Backbone:
């Protein structure tokens, strides 16, 4: 199951004796063999796919894996099972592969896709589905597997994950948030109500001719803008908007999706003539049913909106994302408040700025997080529109003997900020750490992994996270690792300092992680804050670390390889185990963070740590030159 799957959608049939649920991966051929052996099916309907074009633009690997490798694995497992069936069951067996009209490419103003239209897929999604269609065809021609392929137009209806256009617009319009429309909104899609699609699939499975393909379409062509306007008008009719005169005012035209197909339209004559299928819903009746369903089923979609997916637009390349601005909304003139002014990340943020939004950075003397009165006074004085908390008690070893101070800053301080942000109804971006984990996992940590800090610092940060989640829905918690910059004290600067008078350095080589540079964190926060202020950012906890990974020893060697190339002194680095370098606070052996979620939600991928290290060293040299010159 991926992010788009939701067992709640199956609640209605959960108790049925004709239904079984097995959680598994279609790329797992052993599991598939086991399932075929246990259930001995008469047919397979293959509906599993990564299906969101926007996601395929920023993360195509999953599409290749699931849609191509997964289809291949399922075909092979099916063939193994099918070849062992008795002749009569073998003849009746069917494999129905559910595909898309996007394999045909894009149409101009005229014409329709028929079953004989040549494939011309344009997006990573469409090309992965086209590849799968070809595999299915080949398994029929080569092995005689009785396959059927359907290619349908854009579906919509109940239980649709709220990243797709229609549910996204219904829910954003309901909450009176900006309604992002690509380009001019003139791309045309042929809309098919999901129940009509399901009826067609059942018909093709029962009556279709093996080896044939069937197009399924509702003959309901609409431009994206027409779809969005129809939803706005229908919702206005049902529930008048509170913040705008009419919901059409919420429409925001955003940078177009790269390679956006202009028009899709399906000719469903074959299905209609040969199998007698007809779409039962017009676009108007289907849309009304869909809106009514979302209004009546908030308990289904609300957790998805506030959890994994908050209603932001995906699939824009990183540069475009920064430019996205909702129209029809008054820009917030209040400043962004950065707490922790003298820290590494705060300094990088202060230097970078927030793309035209004013900001104020305050140090401990102006906003001491252990003093609630001081925090309240700072809020009253600056009336921020968003807060970034880059302040923390970060002395990991010292925290073991200063537990109260660490918790006062990292937990109680975070809670005060969250409470004041909740009262002011503004978002909080808070920085946290990989030290909330115990480092025993063998793979990079994902956001949902349980926290189990090994030291006081990690425990205080974990408690701070929890406090924020409990007090403020509008939060973005960014867990990062091994932060370095040309300012402050950090591993890069410590190594360079030690290199000045040591010929040999012992460095731990069994803790793995990714160095993350403060300037990269600042860039990410710039993008996130612009999206949050624009009303289309995702809330929640995200991992954010430099790309690539290494050990502290590998990091040290890279520092010296690069610093010696810049004419600096370089010692011999000796790899040692953690057991030879005891510290008051225990460190996690695995600090690696899986950063997929922030890539999906915000299009953010931090640069490779080695590239940022080079920039950091250049900055350090520049600063040293300037100090030398002054
Ligand atoms: N450094 C890392 O390797 C690392 C790794 C993972 C996550 N993080 C997280 O990343 C964030 C930024 O880290 P960083 O490396 O930029 O930290 P940093 O350089 O140590 O800066 C922390 C800042 O917090 C301020 N601060 C401490 N106590 C405070 C209080 N009571 N009230 C107000 N401000 C206070 C400090 O002020 P003074 O200058 O007055 O002392 C300092 O400027 C932190 O949340 C940290 O937990 C860091």
Residues:
């Amino acid at each position: 199951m991926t992010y788009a799957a939701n067992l709640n959608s199956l609640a209605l049939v959960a108790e049925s004796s004709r239904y079984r649920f097995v959680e598994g991966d279609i790329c797992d051929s052993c599991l598939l063999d086991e399932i075929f052996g246990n259930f001995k099916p008469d047919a397979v309907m293959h509906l599993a796919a990564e299906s969101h074009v926007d996601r395929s633009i920023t993360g195509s690997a999953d599409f290749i894996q699931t849609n191509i490798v997964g289809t291949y694995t399922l075909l092979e497992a099916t063939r193994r099972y099918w070849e062992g069936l008795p002749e009569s069951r073998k003849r009746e067996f069917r494999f129905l592969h559910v595909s898309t009209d996007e394999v045909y490419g894009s149409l101009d103003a005229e014409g329709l896709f028929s079953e004989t239209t040549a494939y011309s897929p344009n997006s990573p999604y469409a090309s992965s589905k086209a590849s799968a269609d070809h595999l299915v065809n080949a398994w029929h021609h080569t092995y005689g597997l009785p396959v059927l392929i359907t290619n349908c137009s854009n579906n919509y209806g109940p239980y649709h994950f709220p990243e797709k256009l229609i549910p996204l617009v219904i829910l954003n319009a309901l909450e009176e948030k900006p309604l992002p429309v690509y380009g001019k909104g003139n791309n045309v899609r042929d809309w098919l109500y999901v129940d009509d699609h399901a009826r067609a699939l059942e018909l093709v499975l029962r009556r279709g001719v093996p080896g044939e393909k069937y197009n399924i379409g509702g003959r309901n062509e609409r431009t994206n803008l027409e779809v969005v306007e129809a939803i706005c008008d229908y919702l206005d009719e049902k529930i008048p908007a509170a913040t705008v005169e009419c919901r059409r005012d919420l429409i925001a035209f955003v940078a177009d999706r790269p390679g956006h197909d202009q028009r899709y339209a399906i000719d469903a004559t074959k299905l209609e003539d040969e199998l007698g299928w007809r779409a039962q819903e017009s676009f108007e009746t289907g849309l009304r049913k869909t809106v009514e369903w979302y209004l009546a089923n908030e308990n289904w979609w609300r957790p998805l909106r506030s959890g994994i997916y908050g209603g932001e637009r995906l699939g824009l390349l990183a540069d475009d994302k920064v430019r996205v601005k909702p129209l029809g909304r008054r820009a917030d003139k209040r400043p962004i408040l950065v707490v922790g002014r003298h820290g590494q990340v705060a300094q990088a943020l202060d230097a970078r700025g927030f793309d035209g939004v004013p900001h104020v950075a305050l140090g401990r003397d102006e906003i001491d997080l252990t003093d609630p009165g001081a925090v309240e006074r700072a809020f009253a004085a600056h009336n921020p529109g968003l807060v970034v908390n880059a302040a923390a008690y970060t002395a990991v070893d010292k925290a073991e003997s200063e537990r109260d101070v660490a918790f006062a800053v990292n937990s109680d301080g975070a809670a005060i900020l969250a409470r004041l942000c909740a009262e002011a109804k503004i978002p909080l971006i808070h920085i946290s750490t990989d030290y909330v984990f115990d480092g025993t996992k063998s793979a990079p940590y994902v956001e949902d992994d349980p926290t189990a800090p090994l030291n006081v610092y990690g425990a205080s940060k974990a408690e701070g996270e929890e406090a924020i989640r409990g007090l403020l829905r509008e939060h973005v918690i960014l867990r990062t690792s091994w932060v370095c910059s040309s300012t402050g004290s950090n591993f890069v600067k410590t190594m360079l300092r030690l290199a000045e008078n040591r010929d040999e350095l012992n460095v731990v080589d069994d803790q793995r992680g990714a160095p993350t540079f403060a300037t990269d964190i600042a860039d990410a926060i710039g993008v996130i804050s612009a999206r949050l202020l624009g009303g289309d950012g995702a809330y929640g906890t995200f991992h954010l670390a430099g790309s690539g990974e290494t050990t502290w020893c590998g990091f040290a060697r890279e520092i010296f390889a690069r610093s010696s190339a810049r004419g600096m002194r370089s010692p011999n680095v000796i790899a040692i185990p953690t057991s030879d370098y005891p510290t008051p606070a225990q460190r996690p052996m695995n600090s690696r963070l899986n950063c997929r979620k922030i890539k999906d939600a915000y299009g953010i991928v931090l640069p490779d740590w080695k590239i940022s290290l080079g920039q950091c060293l250049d900055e350090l040299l520049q600063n040293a030159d300037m100090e030398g010159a002054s």
The pocket of NAP is lined by residues 340, 342-345, 363-364, 367-370, 390-394, 409, 413, 431, 433, 461, 480-483, 488 (CB under 6 Å). The domain at 331-489+515-549+592-608 is CATH 3.40.50.720 (Rossmann fold). The chain has two domains: 7-17+25-320, 331-489+515-549+592-608. The chain has 21 helices and 21 strands.
